[in-house]
Amino acid sequence: xxxxxxxxxxxxxxxxxxxxxxxxxxxxxxxAILELGMAFKDYLTVSYLSREGAxxxxxxxxxxxxDCAILRGLGAIVTPGDLARxxxxxxxxxxxxxxxxxxxxxxxxxxxQDPTLCNVPALPSDGWTVNSSSYxxxxxxTSVSATQDLDIIGVRIILDxxxxxxxxxxxxxxxxxxxxxxxxxxxxxx
Length: 190
Prior knowledge:
41% of the residues lie in helices and 27% in strands.
């Protein structure tokens, strides 16, 4: 009997040591799942927003308000928390052969303002400030011709992200950067 009691005490001690070793590993695994899951969510958000922006830009064509249409569309679907972390939105002409970024308009969001308000030039109440001088919407090629291809428009979104726990190796901040290109929709005349 006494021998069994001694074994039970040793087993309890071994269980305590095993738990002390396993708990930090379990905690590290849970932190990694949380951090990587939230980083992946941010990537998916930025990817979706860039695709939606490119789609709206292709449909807006060479309308003078095309850049603002993109930004208002983004402002209507993004959450306030993600909107506040958007560093900038770049609307650019992509190269027809390689898709490389060419002339670029840069838009920034004014935190606390209405994200569905945009004018060029910007008004004080606007949520978005956009510089449309590098790739003016009126200069976009939307007519099919034998001498010129349709423009390819690109939308690049850069979002600032901070790690939640700041537990190494998840410390500091990073940028989530995603771009989408699409060919402009041709004008249709009736």
